[in-house]
Amino acid sequence: MTAQRPAVLVTRHVFPEVIDKLREHFDVETNDDDAVWPREELLRRLQGKAAAFTTGSERIDEALLQACPDLKLVANMSVGYNNFDVDAMTRHGVQGSNAPDVLTETTADFGFALLMATARRVSESEHFLRAGHWHKWAVEMFLGAEVHGSTLGILGMGRIGQGIARRGAHGFGMKVIYHNRSRLDAATEAECRATYVAKDELLRQADHLVLVLPYTPQNHHAIGAAELAQMKPTATLINIARGGIVDDAALAQALREQRIAAAGLDVFEGEPTVHPDLLTVPNVVLTPHIASATRGTRLGMAHLAADNLIAYLTRGEVLTPVNTPAR
Ligand code: DGY
Question: Which of 80, 149, 226, 251 is 20 to 30 Å apart from 245, CA to CA?
Fold first, then answer.
C-alpha cells in the first residue's frame, strides 16, 4: 500500500514547471484562473492541506490558523512577509518561509529605473506627447532633476537597499546616505560608498529618497506629512517597499502643492486600489507592484517557495525560514 501524499494548495497561478515539480511529491490543488479567492474560499480550500504556496497577499493570521489545523508550512514566493502573523504561526507550530536574495538585483534595477523615470519626468512627458500636445521643442520643456552627482538617500539598507546604493555610487557618482535600524559594518559601507545618517538628516539632505524597508507596525506611515515637510522641495521620493510605509493621502497633497518635486510608486496602501488623489497629480510615476517582475526572477522566486515546501514536507528542513516554531 502506498502512503498518502501530503496535499498542498497553490493560491495563485504560477509557472507550470513549478507546479510539475510540486506534483512529483504532493497532491497539488492549483488556481489556474488566477482568481483572488475571497477569505472564506481560501479557508475552505485549505482544509486538509499540509502546506500553502502563497504570493504574499494572503493574510495568514490567528483565525485562519485556528480554522486550518492541518497546515504545517506557508511558503511565500516573496521576500516580504507582512501577510504573516509570525507570532501566531509560531504559536500554532506553523513554519513560514519567504523568498529572499533571488530578487535582489532585479528589484534594485527597478528601483533605479523608477528613480530615473521620476527625476527625468519620463511618464509625464510621454503622456504629453501621446495626448498630441507636443508642437515644438522648447528650452524649458520638462526640466527634471539631476541624477548623476546628486545625493541618494536610502531608508532601509538591506540587500536591495545596498544594490541601489552600489548603482548610485558606482554608476552615477552619487553621494549615498542611508538610515537603517542598525548600521552596516564598515566593509559593506565602504563597498556601497554609503554614509550612515539619522533619519531626519536623511530626509533633509536627500535629492532622491528611496524606501526599501520592510512593512511592520512600527514602519506604518514612516513617511507622512511631517516627514514630507522635512524634504527638499526639489526632492523625489521612490517607494518600492510596501504600501502603508507612505501615507499616500499626505503624499498626494504634498505632490499637488509641490512641496516635493515628484514621486515614483510601485506599491500602495490598499493595493490594487490606488488613492484617487495620486491618480490625478501629474508629478508621480505609478507602476503596479512590478519591481521583481522579470521572468527569470519571478521563476527563481517561485522555485524557491516550491523548494521550501519540498524540503520541509519531505525532510523537515526549511531553506529560508522566517520563524522557528516548536515541532
Ligand atoms: C516581494 O518579494 O516582497 C515583492 O514585493 C513581490 O511581492
Answer: 149
